Amino acid sequence: MKVLAVHPSALMYTKVFLRLEPLGLELVAGAARNAGHDVRIIDLQAETHEDYWKLVEEFQPDAICYSGSYLANVPEILDLCRETRYRFPLVFQFIGGHSVSFIARDVLELSEGSVNCILKGEGDATVGLLLEAVQNGTNILDVPGTVTLDGEGPPPIFVKSLDEVRPARDLLRHRNKYFIGTLDPAASIEFARGCPWDCTFCSAWTFYGRSYRTASPQVIADELEEIKEPGIFIVDDVAFVHEEHGMAIADEIKKRGIKKEYYLETRADVLLRNKEVFKVWSEIGLSYIFIGMEAVDEEGLKQFRKRVSLDKNFEALEYARSLGLIVAINIIADPSWDRARFEAVRQWCLEIPDIVNISVTTPYPGTEIWHKEARRLTTRDYRLFDIQHAVLPTTLPLPEFYEELVKTQQVLNTKHMGWQALKDTAGIAVNLLKNGQTNFVKMLWKFNSVFNPELQLADHQRPARYLMPVQPDAVDKIDRNDLYVHGPGGRKTRALDDATETFVDKTRMGEEA
């Protein structure tokens, strides 16, 4: 079969600070190609809808799969599915990915027959089985993870081994368009999949059933050797949870003489527990480290069940700085913040040397916050669920909330971007421009055209074609089994030694590591 894999357009935040290659879609495309199909990829972050229609006309795919990893992309995907069904009525259309796995039936009902099925869970595990069923005319509901308006197939399954799935990087048509900060261009890579923690605002653990699986250091090094980009973003939800695994990858990289620059995300307590791992990585190319603090006080940390003490967070920041790493922090702005709270956060952010990003508390399907807060939503427009819009009631009038939010973001933008950033990174910028890479330099002045309180407020007034269903009343006690896409498999699904498993349990339960 001829298969077209589609990634939707960029979201608000990614229009400025980063544009990452669609690694999940590349993995699905790779699995489909391994199953014997002729596959193409189009990424609408880097191409246009006109490019999409041109490719569909030329390629004439038998099946089109769409990446539904982000809730805010649902309307665009549904529009494409509807128009594609009208123009090409025989093509088989399906959607997979993180977000749609939690809302499969809602999306199918909104599609009004234009979508054949949703493929829940790890698409690279089951896309071959689905395409085989379509090709042979057998019942697609026999395929694990499939959902149609007529029913639901067996539960989703995991790939047998992360070593057996390789992304089809060669199918991307504009690899020079992907970057994160000064890593321009940048490729993405996966060392491990899943997260053993259970933060209330996150759906990584509910998607993967609190599993944590790793690829072998040898296979990771093979992939790094094949990647042409000098910058690498490690996409793991929490990097180097398992100290031995992180060290083994570093040893393989040193042995082969691989020279790359790396950016990753981790937790403060993991950084402090595995200091030697991060020290070694700082010596082989790690330059950026993202730490999701989420809050700057103990009350906020408790709310998100982040369960890392404030002292631990600050200690981790100091240690990362001591390694010469550029540190980026995420703070979640709660709708309850007033002007004084915004001002206090601004002052704190200005007092530290690190890069700070402010996002907005957003309940997503699959999170505990969703089940507790969904009835209070002030909008059911999928497009606003992008962590940059307020979708819950705000203490301040909404126009004032956006004014304070953007003012805070603007202060941080002035601190780290624009002319000052160019001054600090002039050498890097010149080298990038010499090599034809303009992503980083262009982003330095894009902030005001994207982050604008009047534009954000106007987004709430746009007519919405697709609305979330009205949510049921919140429940006092949540049954976690109702949250999972991949059901929890317990200890055997986590590639952790006993000491690390104990560490995770203690920090997950709020005890000292």
Structural account:
The protein is of the alpha/beta class. It folds into two domains: 2-152, 3-Layer(aba) Sandwich (Rossmann fold), CATH 3.40.50.280; 169-416, Aldolase class I (TIM Barrel, Alpha-Beta Barrel). The chain is built from 22 helices and 17 strands. It has helices at residues 23-34, 49-59, 74-87, 98-102, 104-111, 123-136, 204-208, 217-226, 243-256, 268-273, 275-283, 298-303, 310-322, 339-351, 368-373, 398-416, 418-424, 426-434, 439-443, 447-450, 453-459, 498-508; strands at 2-7, 18-19, 38-43, 63-67, 92-96, 117-119, 146-148, 151-152, 179-180, 186-189, 192-194, 212-214, 231-234, 261-266, 286-294, 326-333, 355-360. The strands form four sheets. A seven-stranded mixed sheet has the order 3-1-4-5-6-7-8, sandwiched between helices. Strand 13, helix 9 and strand 14 form a beta-alpha-beta unit. Helix 14 (339-351) packs parallel to helix 16 (398-416), helix 16 runs parallel beside helix 17 and helix 16 crosses helix 21. The longest helix has 19 residues, at 398-416. It is globular, with a radius of gyration of 22 Å. The termini are far apart. The model has no long low-confidence stretch (mean pLDDT 89).
